[in-house]
Design a protein that fits this description.
Helix 4 runs parallel beside helix 5, helix 6 packs antiparallel against helix 14 and helix 8 crosses helix 10. The protein is globular and about 70 Å long. The protein has a domain of 228 residues: Amidase signature (AS) domain (Amidase signature (AS) enzymes, Alpha-Beta Complex), CATH 3.90.1300.10. Strands 1-3-2-4-6-5-10-11-9-7-8 form an eleven-stranded mixed β-sheet, sandwiched between helices. Strand 2, helix 3 and strand 3 form a beta-alpha-beta unit. By secondary structure, it is α/β, with parallel strands linked by helices. Bound molecules: glutamine (GLN). Glutamine binds next to loops. It catalyses: L-glutamyl-tRNA(Gln) + L-glutamine + ATP + H2O = L-glutaminyl-tRNA(Gln) + L-glutamate + ADP + phosphate + H(+). This is Glutamyl-tRNA(Gln) amidotransferase subunit A. Belongs to the amidase family. GatA subfamily.
Length: 452
């Protein structure tokens, strides 16, 4: 813990943390030492980890990287973090992120962008770590935490893991409790581990997951021993290669890495099979209707009365609401609220929101059909390596395109894993993604370990 507290300090230029908790970390580590001395060590005893600032941590500032949550210290603990402390983990601090988890670069944050510890050969501009769980990814890549939590609504664990050469898993929707995680799009949000290795991801997920009677969408089934699934034996497994993921303009280096991944799995005894997920191209537009729609409803609670920031000197209640929200939310959050209220408004509900929901079930159906033939799907995680801070901030559509390979699994609720698999032509990490059947994280992790 002392070494990691020091590493968090020396990595400060990355702006990976919003809040550091060194005193709490030492206190927790001491309690862990005592347990270990008594021979009562738990699975993550004494392991220093970082928590995305979207998880409510009791008595520790929780901001969702938003000005509107200024000074909010929750009186309760999220179930996932509670599970991690019960397994013996130690809190190093709360990590930077895109505000309310909306973004793909960690630039939409009140606390200033987090940076990627990697740099492009011959170019000293700082790179984004991806988003929205960019601070967690950056902290892992910089060795400032052994592991971290992230959340993934449309790719926010997998894409930053790909940009930083780390492992990140979005479990099946319902595997982890959402209680105490600041809500973005409730039918998509899912917590997951961000780590250096697939084995660490298996251990973290084992501790994070589990039924929570206080979250009706958390599944009531036993948590498998994910680590035991890492046998290295993938002989005979069928690996789907979805033809529709070969999108126009896909960079050659991504295409080559994907091919390389297929070859590695074939050499390990698995069998790549070409499959079709015909509705893939509708996933991104459907996601950017459903996620903002749910966000606009979830974010209605930030009214200046219950949490954080409140505008001063308002002359009426309505003016207080309006000014609090105008001052408290950043531009991207406002854009999502506007899109969301538009697609949910009486005249447009059927044309946009209901249509998007129908598309969503067709996408889930595509996956169900594919999994009659194959055990797992292999695809790229992101369409490019990390880009420079500032490059896409003024182009929301280009930013949204980053999610093209991650949102289909999100809409279908399926587990997805990023494994670092190679380097781009200019020396940056590139990841491959494995997408599994619902509640079959074990196969995903097992195949992922062979790729790593
Ligand atoms: N980049 C996507 C978005 O901005 C995904 C975010 C996420 O998964 N939290 O909505």
């Amino acid at each position: 813990t002392d070494a990691h507290v020091a590493a968090v300090e020396s990595a400060r230029e990355l702006n990976a943390f919003i809040t550091e908790t060194p005193d709490l970390a030492r206190e927790m580590a001491k309690a862990s030492d005592e347990r270990r001395a008594k021979g009562e060590a738990r699975p993550l005893e004494g392991l220093p980890i970082a928590i995305k600032d979207l998880f409510a941590t009791r008595d520790v500032l929780t901001t969702a990287a938003s000005h509107i949550l200024d000074g909010f210290t929750p009186p309760y603990e999220s179930t996932v973090t509670r599970n991690l402390w019960d397994a013996g983990a130690v809190l190093l601090g709360k990590t930077n992120m895109d505000e309310f988890a909306m973004g793909s670069s960690n630039e939409n944050t009140y606390y200033g962008p987090a940076k990627n510890p990697w740099a492009r050969a011959g170019d000293n501009r700082p790179l984004v770590p991806g988003g929205s769980s960019g601070g967690s990814a950056s902290a892992i890549a910089a060795r400032a935490a052994l592991a971290a939590t992230g959340t993934d609504t449309g790719g926010s664990i997998r894409q930053p893991a790909s940009f930083t050469g780390t492992v990140g898993m979005k479990p099946t929707y319902g595997r982890c409790s959402r209680l105490g995680i600041v809500a973005f799009a409730s039918s998509l949000d899912q917590a997951g581990p961000m780590t250096r290795s697939v084995r660490d991801a298996a251990l973290m997920l084992g501790a994070m997951a589990g039924h929570d009677p206080h979250d009706s969408t958390s599944v009531n089934s036993p948590v498998p021993d994910f680590e035991a699934a890492l046998t290295g034996d993938i002989r005979g497994l069928k690996v789907g290669i979805p033809r529709e993921y070969r999108v126009d303009g896909m960079p050659g280096e991504i295409e080559r890495l994907w091919q390389q991944g297929m070859d590695w799995l074939r050499q390990a005894g698995a069998e790549p099979v070409e499959i079709s997920l015909p509705r893939t191209r509708y996933a991104l537009p459907a996601y950017y209707i459903i996620a903002p729609a749910e966000a606009s409803a979830n974010l209605a609670r930030y009214d200046g009365v219950r949490f954080g920031h409140r505008a001063e000197d308002a002359k009426s209640l309505t003016e207080m609401y309006e000014r609090t929200r105008a001052e408290g939310f950043g531009d991207e959050v406002k854009r999502r609220i506007l899109i969301g209220t538009y697609v949910l408004s009486a005249g447009y509900y059927d044309a946009y929101y209901n249509k998007a929901r129908r598309v969503r079930s067709l996408i889930a159906q595509d996956f169900r059909e594919a999994y009659r033939e194959v055990d797992v799907i292999l695809a790229p995680t992101a369409p490019s390596p990390a880009f420079a801070v500032g490059d896409l901030v003024d182009d929301p559509i280009a930013m949204y395109l980053n999610d093209v390979f991650t949102v289909p699994a999100s809409l279908a609720g399926l587990p997805g894993l990023n494994v670092p698999a190679g380097l781009s032509d200019d020396g940056l990490p590139l990841g491959l993604q494995l997408i599994g059947r619902a509640f079959d994280e074990e196969t995903v992790l097992k195949v992922g370990q062979v790729l790593e």
